[in-house]
Design a protein that fits this description.
14% of the residues lie in helices and 31% in strands. By secondary structure, it is of the alpha/beta class. The strands form 6 sheets. The protein has a 10-stranded mixed beta sheet, covered by helices on one side. Strands 7-10-13-18-21-24-27-30 form an 8-stranded parallel beta sheet, with no helix packed on it. A 6-stranded mixed beta sheet has the order 1-3-4-5-6-2.
């Protein structure tokens, strides 16, 4: 999430009520999660397990709950609760906007695009040319949809990320300030849900086709010309590279990568990253030929035991 302008470290510290280490005029241009940070971004960390990863990341400002040595060329924001202070940044720079109409006056809709009855289009949404949005589609604020996109009935784009911190009093939500981008020539089936990024962008690239009842989590990137069958659930922060096929009821862990032209057979649990160009099956996941061979061998062992 980029800020409308570059702020100084001192300004950001005052905004969220923290102390800071570094020059007061140190430039800050945005805030992001660890996997998508860039130079100028703030990243937050509140667990010792991830201190080094955050301090060594591309982020140039680290919002942290411990006094540590500041790496060269970076700055620190010292906070009692980085999770809450990161939420303060999201609330300030991407505040919730109340809808006043079914189709926002700030939405931009391209030529020859068809909007069927009962569609909701939020603030600052951009929709390209020759699209079709079927009844009861919901497009939350700040989503971008390319040209020649079809979205079938009941699908929802841009709902909040499923991201919580477990506290004694209950689950504390990490607020979502990201968005969704759907590129050209994408088809989205009925009753699909594509969550926006926490601070980045959930992206569906050109030519991908998505069946009915598919869930795609926050900050995930789906490559070009992918096929995703019904009841597949893709977790947050996943990278699905180009021309991947995911058959029905596939589920994934978060933070993994599925390589180009991989084929994942139905009901597979993608528990780890897998290289492209191969077919996979089962939970835990493995190459399908190997997995099916193992299953056949197990059957033979059972038969022998019964004799």
């Amino acid at each position: 999430m980029k800020f409308p302008r570059i702020h100084s470290l001192k300004e950001i510290a005052a905004l969220i009520g923290t102390t800071y280490i570094g020059p007061s005029n140190f430039p800050v241009s945005g805030c992001n999660e660890i996997h998508v940070v860039e130079e100028g971004d703030i990243v937050f960390v509140d667990h010792p397990k991830y201190y080094d990863k955050a301090l060594e990341s591309k982020a140039t400002v680290v919002l942290i709950n411990k006094h540590v040595e500041c790496p060269k060329g970076k700055a620190l924001l010292i906070s009692k609760d980085p999770f809450t202070d990161f939420n303060k940044l999201t609330t300030h720079f991407k505040p919730f906007e109340i809808a006043t109409s079914a189709i926002s006056k700030t939405a931009i809709i391209g030529k020859n695009t068809i909007i069927q009855p009962n569609v909701f289009i939020g603030n600052n949404v951009v929709i390209g040319d020759n699209c079709v949005l079927h009844p009861n589609v919901t497009i939350y604020d700040n989503c971008t949809i390319g040209n020649n996109v079809t979205i079938h009935a009941g699908s929802v784009l841009g709902a909040d990320a499923f991201y919580y911190k477990n506290r004694k009093e209950g689950f504390d939500k990490l607020l979502s300030g990201g968005s969704v981008i759907i590129e050209d020539n994408v088809d989205i089936g009925a009753l699909c849900t594509i969550d926006r990024g926490v601070s980045g962008i959930t992206t569906i690239k050109k030519g991908t086709k998505i069946d009915n009842q598919v869930q795609i989590g926050h900050d995930t990137v789906i490559g070009k010309k992918c096929l995703i069958a019904s009841q597949t659930g893709i977790a947050g922060c996943v990278i699905v590279e180009d021309e991947v096929t995911l058959w029905g009821q596939v589920g994934t862990n978060s933070g993994i990568t599925i390589g180009t032209k991989a084929v994942i057979l139905g009901q597979t649990g993608v528990t780890k990253s897998v290289p492209g160009g191969k077919t996979y099956f089962g939970t835990p996941i493995d190459e399908s030929r190997k997995k099916l061979k193992e299953m056949a061998q197990i059957k033979q062992i059972i038969k022998k035991q019964k004799k």
